[in-house]
Amino acid sequence: MADSATKPRVLVVEDEDNIAIALDYLLTREGYSHDRVANGADAMPRIRSDRPDVVLLDVMLPEVSGYEICQDIRLDPDLRGVKILMMTARGSAMERRKGLALGADGFIAKPFELKELREELRRLVPDIAEGDDA
Amino acid sequence: MLEKLGLRLRIFLFFAFLALTGMAAIGLGLWAGYTRLESSGPGSAFVMAGAIAGFALLGLTAWVWYLFDENVARAIGRIAGGMRAEAHAGGALLDEGAARYLGDLAPAAAAVTGSLTETRNALAEAVQRETVRLADEKARLETLLSDVPVGVLLCSADHQLAFYNGQAVDLLGAGAAPGLDRKVFAYLRDGPIRQAHDRLVAIGDPDAASDLLCATVAGARILAGRMRLVAGGGYVLTLRDVTGDLAAHAARERLLAEVFDRIRRPAANLQTAVGVIAEGGDAPEVSAALVAEATRLVRAINDLATRYDAERAGWWPLPMVRAADLADSLRARAEAAGLTLTTEAADLILRCDGFEIVALLGSLGEAIAERSGVRRFDLTLAQDGAGAVIDLVWQGEPVGIGQLEGWLARPVDPSAPGVTGRAVLDTHATECWPERRGAGQAAIRLPLRDARRAARRPAPITRSVVYDFDLLSKGRSAAVLDAPLADLTYVVFDTETTGLLPSQGDEIVQLAAVRIVNGRRVEREVLDLLVNPGRPIPPRATEVHGITGAMVADAPPIAEVGRRFHDFAEGAVLIAHNAPFDMEFLRRHEAEIGARFDHPILDTVLLSAVVFGQGETHSLDALTHRLGITIPEEARHTAIGDTLATADAFLKLVPMLQAQGIRTFGDVLAEVKKHGRLLRDLNA
User: Fold this and answer.
1) Of B402, B429, B430, which has the smallest distance from its Cβ to A65's Cβ?
2) Residues whose CB falls within 8 Å of the CB of residue A43, separated by 6 or more in sequence, listed in order
């Protein structure tokens, strides 16, 4: 597992507690430093202050949608290095295109297998050591 | 001077002149006799007096006859002839000079005929005006009926076709094309139609309509129909193809059933495993089962969601719209809103609701203009994989996705308050989003899932209507033999072949047929097909009909063409010129065709013999020449050219047969048997 000072930082923007618990478990086990915000309105201030390496972003959020947050991140030059992995329960091909067009770096449809999420995170943040997917 | 005197005065003077002249002749005779009395004696003097008076009276009588014949009898005859000609033919000129001694008779007759001519001309003009008006109305109604987007059939009470439009041809035309005076059951399965008809007849309400669902005979199409009875018998049947709708519905049902089937089991297993864990069961097998069932559930949901996503666009019936037409409509909407829109559309056909897409993009453009004052937009419509992508581009900043979602929540058009932008996107199973472009440009991108290249605009489909409303009230003879000739339906046909000897392997290379219904040739019911004979075509045969092996290489075999011809001729009397020749070629293939050609048959060679006598030549050229029918040189010895000539000849022979008292099909058969030595009668 990577050292905490160099651990990639993940911000989970997810309003559903149950999946947030599961993500907390996975990200901890995978060696990511992570935090969570539970609604869209709080997301941008946290992203601007924390500058995470990856934003794990749910599309359907209260108040502000994941698409809006994605677009705001991409319009902010200071957040250029932030990777965005979008998650949605409505994973149609058109929504995937829309997410990627708005600047997302990856898009996974719920429900997903942990293996799939793990691989997407490693693709976006290759710093995590290989072979640590027990 | 005499013409100026009245007719009665002239007749009086004439008879007075006759009396005086007669008396003068007698006086002359007496005077001559008296002068000879002394020299010849009294006997001779009396004879001389009588002879002179007699000859003078004879001459006078002859002169009177001549005058009466020339100026009365002939003049009356000419006047009468002129009046008769005017009465029956019209336009005859009355020779008034011929009757100049008949007083006012000629001017009076001229006045009568002149008045008749004027009345007749006025009547003819009125009829002509009305005819033109009715013809215009008829043309308008035909256009209207040919353009209605549903198939329309008008059938008699015994289900014979009396009218059909172009859409009906498309709907029913998977097999044989429809034909007038044929049973509708040749195209549609009879059960639902009979039931709907019986239902309406039983109700007896002229305004009642009955909805039905029926299939084409071949089962290729499912049609939704509505039947309504028409005054005087018969019914109108409107038809719409719902095959695609039903298939989409069935696909949706199948997917829904699969969703329950594949999700219920892992969900139930998960619930059981979770229950075990909740009660303290922590065996590794329980955890493994939990993981396995969850994985199974996830995969099932993702697989089903992917399929739903791929298929749902096809479930909503959307028309095909030309990209250029869509761009045109958008330009018009933008101009109406005071915006400038330049468009660039690939030559594509898009599957979309044109009105909704135009309304959506128009409303978005207007919202952008209102927000940022942009007045000028570019629209590009390009191919994108199996679909297309529409970009609405302007100079300026992109809109926020949140703002775009807000606009999408509004109605796209004031005339359709229930249709929001989001609803339009859902209908088309798509999304739209803002994009930043280079050079300070922004865009909204809207992909469409389904589009295809349109190499060229297809030729407009001839949307004609075919009808004969007399068929609705036509009496029908159960037996062909007793049927008047004018009541029968005929199929006139001709074949071109590889040679003259079917028994030695010659085959048909072309077959053409036309239908005659209710005494007229139905222009649009024509069969004209090349046939692959399955053997080479000898050059001498090609010299006659111009058909080469290359022309028939891709043509269907006689089994298929024969089947189509048999369908085309169902219920009709077959007519050919020298029918035994053509029938022998066809009957040899009855097994392959799967149908028997047991139709009643007429032969125009025999009919020609009946009408013109056996001594004449009865070739098609000779017959058509005698009947004043011209076969264009390029059409001669083509199956369709000879078929049309034979049909026209038959139509001219029918009234000639009727004039000889030959009125029914049975009469014709009895008559042609007398010409058995000329040709074999195939009905024997």
Assistant:
1) B402
2) A11, A13, A37, A55, A57, A61, A64, A69
* pLDDT tens for each residue of B17-30: 989 999 998 998 88
Q: What is the Cα–Cα distance from B219 to B188, expressed in whole angstroms?
A: 9
- Indicate whether B98 pLDDT > 80: no
User: ipTM of the assembly?
Assistant: 0.84
Residue to substitute from A64, A98, A114, A117, interface B, most B β-carbons within 10 A: A98
Give the residue from A47, A42, A45, A61 showing the smallest Cα distance to A11: A47
Q: What architecture is the B148-241 domain classified under in CATH? A: 2-Layer Sandwich (3.30)
Cross-chain Cβ contact B305/A91 below 8 Å: yes
Q: Which helix (H) or strand (E) holds B262?
A: helix B243-278
**Cβ contacts (< 8 Å) between A111 and chain B: which residues?**
297-298, 301-302
Annotate B442-477 with b (16+ C-beta within 10 A) or e (fewer). Answer: bbbbbbbbbbeebeeeeeeeebbbbbbeebbebeee
The two tokens of residue B468 are 């004969």
Domain count, chain A: 1
Residues B156 and B162 sit within 8 Å (Cβ to Cβ): yes
Neighbouring C-beta atoms of residue B505, cutoff 10 Å: 11
Domain residues of chain B, as ranges?
Answer: 2-119, 148-241, 245-315, 320-453, 478-675
Using CA atoms, how far apart are residues B480 and B482, in angstroms rounded to an integer?
Answer: 5
* Gap between the Cα atoms of A33 and A17, Å rounded: 18
The answer to whether position A131 is within a domain reads no
Dist. CA B526–CA B529, nearest whole Å: 10
* CATH top-level class of B320-453: alpha beta
Q: Are strands B490-497 and B573-576 parallel, antiparallel or unpaired?
A: parallel
For residue A91, which residues of chain B lie inside 8 Å, CB to CB?
302, 305, 309
- What are the angstrom distances between the C-alpha of B563 and each of B527, B557, B587? 12, 10, 12
Which structural domain range is residue A59 located in? Answer: 9-123
Please provide the average confidence, as pLDDT, over all residues in chain B: 85
In chain B, pLDDT over 70 holds for what percent of residues?
Answer: 92
What's the pTM value of the predicted model, to 2 decimals? 0.53
CB atoms within 10 A of CB B429: 22
Assigned architecture for domain B478-675: 2-Layer Sandwich (3.30)
Q: Residue B402 is nearest to which of A68, A91, A97, comparing CB atoms?
A: A68
Helix axes B105-147, B74-88, angle to 10 degrees: 10
For residue range B144-170, what is the model confidence (pLDDT) as tens digits? 777 777 888 999 988 988 888 888 888
Q: Cα–chain-centroid distance for residue B86?
A: 40
Token look-up 């809006």 returns A68
| Six token digits for residue B436 | 């930043």
Res. A129: pLDDT tops 70:
no
